UniProtKB/TrEMBL annotation:
Subcellular location field: Membrane
InterPro entries: MFS, MFS_dom, MFS_trans_sf
Position of the signal peptide: none
Gene3D superfamilies to which the protein is assigned, alphabetical: MFS general substrate transporter like domains
Name recorded for this polypeptide: Major facilitator superfamily (MFS) profile domain-containing protein
Basic and acidic residues bias: start-end ranges: 24-35, 484-529
Gene Ontology molecular function terms on file: transmembrane transporter activity
Source species of the chain: Venustampulla echinocandica
Taxonomic lineage of the native organism: Eukaryota, Fungi, Dikarya, Ascomycota, Pezizomycotina
Length: 541
């Protein structure tokens, strides 16, 4: 599908589409205005008016989307996906996703500051979660259309600029609105993850993904810790000013070091068609459905635990202070540091399904120990926190490693489908966990969480690692990847993934002008049926 520049389904103007979704970055709106259209004076007047109208936005646009020479896309020497770039994405993910969680431990202070009730202040995390969900659903799919560097930089710059309002406003209504807006654009890590899955070599994909995923989980935990400490010793605005500075630091680092990559769909896509294709993918790819169901069950258990843990530790026999309860986040931070090494040694060598089942097993063991030991021994929640965080991390990495291989040109839409299921699981875990704890206490809520993990294991057992259809274990029971040698390296020495993927995209772009509609349809159909490879070679004309 191609986007009609006059009536784009997304409401996105052709100039924005050219700037973000096309490889021709030499043509600007001002140059469009100078194109000869008519010799009449009226047309010249309208052309001059267009130049004036677009002068300021165009200047700002050129400044944000300008690419340093070392980061520019060159099909002859494509940029290398290095460990430094991987760590940069992880760092950006940590302090971007943290924006959603800074308010959690200081809601009572925000209520006093804005002269509202505690119930009203609880709307802040609610609207931010709603904004984040909107960004996942309506912005992330655009990563399959636009150039990732420009798209990411615009979102980070927009978030940082709007965040300034949160630092200075004294109006609760304004604070709520700005919280929602910034949450919508706080989805840049979800654009980086598919890019990492696309560019990392297959035998290192899980490790590369684990660095970014660890950054996301670290941001969730670190945000609560930093917000509590800074607010206790200074003011609640300190953590928001800190985040404001971090957003601009992330923007500067990405601006100077994030390479430019071509769009995976240079021919354009209809926006509403992209959204509908997400629904179609759920009925098309069994691997995606399996990953979504498992992600739902694990994330619901994760949020249920961290929500009800506060109630357990604040009541007898523990009666811990909020600061002591907040230190439990350090347990999760420890597991994040161990994740990349585990991914390199275990996940990159096993089939994704086996790695997911191992992750669920860790969660189930931790959940069982914590549920039965928690009411009388602090060792239970400590072990539970470690195994739960570790199991969640490893299962998410394995799931992403599996789903990013099924549709190379639709990785952002695949990621959207997966993250929507994870988000729904988080909401379910929070609501169900609170309700069950109020009715039956710690053991009832923990027992139901064990049931969720049991459902996740059943979903894994219904479909084997080599099964091509929806249910069954056809293809064998092998638990090791078949594309790796005994030492863990790839059996076939192929061109590096960065060069292979991006050179093929570049080749498509060079030939798109001569492609007929029928040929494009065949190419799209061929690409969408790929499974287990990054991209197939372009169809020979």
């Amino acid at each position: 599908m191609e986007v009609d520049e006059n009536t784009s389904g997304a409401g996105i103007g052709p100039k924005l589409l050219v700037a973000l979704g096309s490889d021709d970055q030499t043509k600007s709106p001002r140059e469009d205005a100078h194109e000869p259209t008519s010799a009449s004076t009226g047309n010249e007047t309208r052309s001059t008016s267009r130049i004036r109208t677009y002068q300021l936005p165009e200047t700002l646009w050129r400044w944000i989307t300008w690419t340093p020479k070392r980061c520019r896309w060159d099909p002859d020497t494509p940029p290398e996906f290095s460990m430094w770039l991987n760590l940069l994405f992880g760092f950006a993910g940590t302090f971007t996703v943290a924006n959603l969680y800074y308010n959690h431990p200081i809601l009572n202070i925000l209520a006093v500051e804005f002269h509202v009730t505690d119930e009203r202040s609880s709307l802040i995390p609610t609207v931010m979660q709603a904004g984040y969900a909107a960004g996942l659903l309506f912005l992330c799919p655009l990563g399959d259309l636009f150039r990732r560097r420009a798209f990411v930089l615009i979102l980070v710059f927009f978030t940082a600029t709007v965040w300034l309002g949160l630092c200075v406003t004294n109006s609760f209504a304004v604070f709520l609105v700005l919280s929602f807006i910034t949450a919508v654009s706080t989805v840049t890590p979800q654009l980086m993850l598919p890019l990492v899955g696309e560019l990392a070599p297959p035998h290192r994909r899980a490790m590369a993904l684990s660095i970014v995923v660890s950054g996301l989980l670290l941001g969730m935990l670190l945000a609560r810790l930093l917000a509590g400490v800074l607010t206790q010793h200074t003011s609640w605005r300190s953590i928001y000013w800190f985040s404001f500075g971090m957003q601009y630091l992330i923007f500067i680092l990405l601006f100077f070091f994030m390479p430019d990559y071509p769009s995976t769909n240079p021919g354009g896509l209809n926006y509403f068609g992209m959204l509908w294709s997400i629904v179609q993918m759920v009925f098309q790819y069994p691997v995606l459905v399996q990953a979504c169901l498992v992600g739902f069950t694990v994330s619901s258990t994760f949020t249920s635990f961290w929500t009800t843990l506060t109630f357990l530790l604040a009541s007898p026999p523990y009666s811990y202070s909020p600061t002591t309860i907040g230190l439990f986040a350090l347990i999760g931070i420890g597991t994040m540091c161990f994740g990349p090494l585990y991914a390199k040694v275990i996940i990159d060598r096993l089939t994704p399904l086996i790695s997911v089942m191992l992750g669920l097993t860790y969660v189930l063991i931790g959940q069982a120990l914590g549920t039965f030991l928690g009411p009388f021994s602090i060792s239970g929640p400590i072990v539970q926190a470690f195994l739960l965080d570790f199991g969640l991390q490893t299962s998410q990495i394995a799931n992403r490693s599996a789903i990013y291989a099924i549709a190379p040109k639709a990785r952002n839409r695949i990621n959207t489908a997966y993250m929507v299921s994870v988000f729904c699981g988080q909401l379910t875990g929070t609501a169900v966990g609170n309700r069950l704890y109020a009715e039956g206490g710690w053991r009832l809520s923990g027992g139901v969480s064990m049931g969720f993990i049991g459902v996740g294991l059943v979903v894994c057992l219904l479909r084997g690692p080599w099964e091509k259809k929806w249910i069954g274990w056809r293809g064998g029971w092998g638990w090791r990847r078949r594309d790796l040698g005994p030492n863990g390296s790839e059996l076939r020495k192929e061109e590096p993934p960065v060069e292979r993927v991006l050179d093929e995209i570049s080749a498509e772009e060079e030939g798109k002008g001569s492609d007929s509609g029928e040929e494009k349809g065949k190419q799209t159909a061929r690409d969408e049926t790929i499974g287990g490879e990054l991209l197939k070679q372009p169809i020979t004309k």
